[in-house]
């Protein structure tokens, strides 16, 4: 891992050394110097036309972007190529991945654009796509960068079964490097206040946690976390680490956060294929996680460090409610095989979904606490920061309930892949995917299609339903 990381960093450094120093000035030709008034009128007309062109190109016709920059942290749902050059099974730089993507190199775990690709477009960034940090040039960084990495999680060990990747803590360290590079750039050199103000207007999208369940907690053959933690204690452990990394980003200048919850991964083709198979699965032992999580309380506290930053400090422990202790003497080891009722072939894995519900509830409460203005039971912990929570579960349920209206006809299998539900193995190199990709909710065993990503992004950007986006949507966050 260390050697791979060093090689990847050297590759990034080499790629950044080719940054273009500046843009060529415009040259005005063919005018008589004596006709100054005509020249002035022509220049004014050109300037007006250019502004109008920029305005027409921006999403929704806005002349200026809603946010000047966007930084992305996450896993394969939003990775756009950071894993391409490292030794990892979690890569998507081969066909048919990206079969409908014509705007750059491969690396996205879908057929076209990801959810954050659409979101950056809706925010008005031009060009609309944020580059992967592994290939970003120094000149790119003030406009944004994507630090996401397939197979990554909140816990450093998550996803190790798939090889190399960058966990959330390393993604944050990469952003720290980027901030240092921007501080030395001509646009901000010697003016830390200007850089701070710039970053304070940017959108910081963070979506983590899926792999901490798929490629950690519910993978008992490789990890022992389920044997050591109850679902509630495990969620609390994840939230503690999550809060610490969000605090690190805050200390580096982030102020506008979009935090995505974990989706219903118990309903993805991979889990449906396992449920519908006769393969040997672990027994359903461990604590029951199926009751409603409405009464659960997972409390996260982090200490406030010096210099405006945050640290876990002596106050940085995690506190779960008394009911979250593992009284059974074991966690959810092997809980990944539910027992659907007779005739319920294709039903979701509610054992996994129930564990995720505990995490999502705690994540929402954390967002509420960070948004607190004081005067209530929870003091504000990140002064000047604003957090938006994306309830991916609610958005996914609404999308499935109105699938036909959105043009979806297939909800339980991947457009490409191998085995039951096209969910036992992800897309093979050069495999021919389905023809009508817009009719499929899932691209492969794990990831949505471009058509689904477009809808998820639209909901995040403009929904007024606080069950989907809380307390405001992304466009409103950008306007603050």
From TrEMBL:
Spans traversing the lipid bilayer: none
Cellular component aspect of the GO annotation: extracellular region
Region (Disordered) residue spans: 278-297, 313-346
A molecular function GO annotation: hydrolase activity, acting on ester bonds
Compartments reported by the entry: Secreted
Keyword list, A-Z: Hydrolase, Lipid degradation, Lipid metabolism, Secreted, Signal
Taxonomic superkingdom: Eukaryota
Feature: compositional bias, Polar residues: 278-291
Coiled-coil ranges from the UniProt annotation: none
Principal localisation: secreted
Compositional bias per record (Low complexity), positions renumbered to this chain: 318-327
Alphabetical GO biological process terms: lipid catabolic process
InterPro entries, alphabetized: GDSL, GDSL_esterase/lipase, SGNH_hydro_sf, SGNH_plant_lipase-like
Protein family per UniProt: Belongs to the 'GDSL' lipolytic enzyme family.
PANTHER family: GDSL-LIKE LIPASE/ACYLHYDROLASE-RELATED, ZINC FINGER PROTEIN
Identification of the protein by name: GDSL esterase/lipase
Species annotation: Panicum virgatum (Blackwell switchgrass)
Lineage, broadest ranks: Eukaryota, Viridiplantae, Streptophyta, Embryophyta, Tracheophyta
